[in-house]
Design goal:
The chain has 178 residues and is an all-alpha fold. 73% of the residues lie in helices and 0% in strands. This is Mitoguardin 2.
Length: 178
């Protein structure tokens, strides 16, 4: 069986569950962006895979040990990047742990969901929040930085330390709008 035959079989299986697929909320990556970014064959292919990934993470994160695992892996990834960049990690560690405690409190979820919906996140899932909203948008911003950041970086009269400061605070400014 070829990969194409296997994919066709998967599509037929997914089509037979049309009501589930059609009930998927439209996310930030619905359409060309998610389809192209993740190398899917079509928007329908992307939505079917997105549905499966959302369900898998929902199941995975019901277990406290898995929640802890993902939290620790995320912390270590950012710590590694900060250490490599020779940045002080103390403030990050305190804030990260506080953020995790906040996100685990179920009474905060309705407020968080409302805030995220205002930013185009339609589903409170690991994929939609962490992978799409945070990581994919960050990579997209690296490919297409805001024009104000580009103007500073291209200005040969500004010192490298000033340019670094602008790059450091630009994401914070974007988050402040959130």
């Amino acid at each position: 069986m070829t990969r194409s035959d296997s994919l066709e079989g998967n599509h037929q299986h997914i089509h037979s569950h049309g009501s589930q697929r059609e009930s998927l909320p439209a996310g930030r990556n619905q359409g060309n962006r998610g389809t192209e970014l993740l190398g899917c064959y079509s928007n329908q292919d992307f939505l079917a895979k997105l549905h499966c990934v959302r369900q898998a993470f929902q199941e995975l994160l019901q277990t406290e040990s898995n929640q802890t695992f993902f939290g620790e892996v995320g912390k270590h990834m950012v710590l590694g990047l900060m250490t490599k960049a020779e940045k002080n990690t103390k403030g990050f560690l305190e804030s990260y742990d506080e953020m995790l405690r906040y996100t685990l409190r179920q009474e905060t979820w309705p407020t968080t969901q409302k805030e995220l919906e205002g930013r185009g996140v339609v589903c409170m899932s690991f994929f939609d929040i962490v992978l799409d909203f945070i990581l994919m948008d960050a990579f997209e911003d690296l490919e297409n930085p805001p024009s104000s950041v580009l103007a500073v970086l291209r200005n040969r009269w500004l010192s490298d330390s000033f340019k670094e400061t602008v790059c450091h605070f630009a994401p914070r400014h974007s988050l402040a709008d959130f």
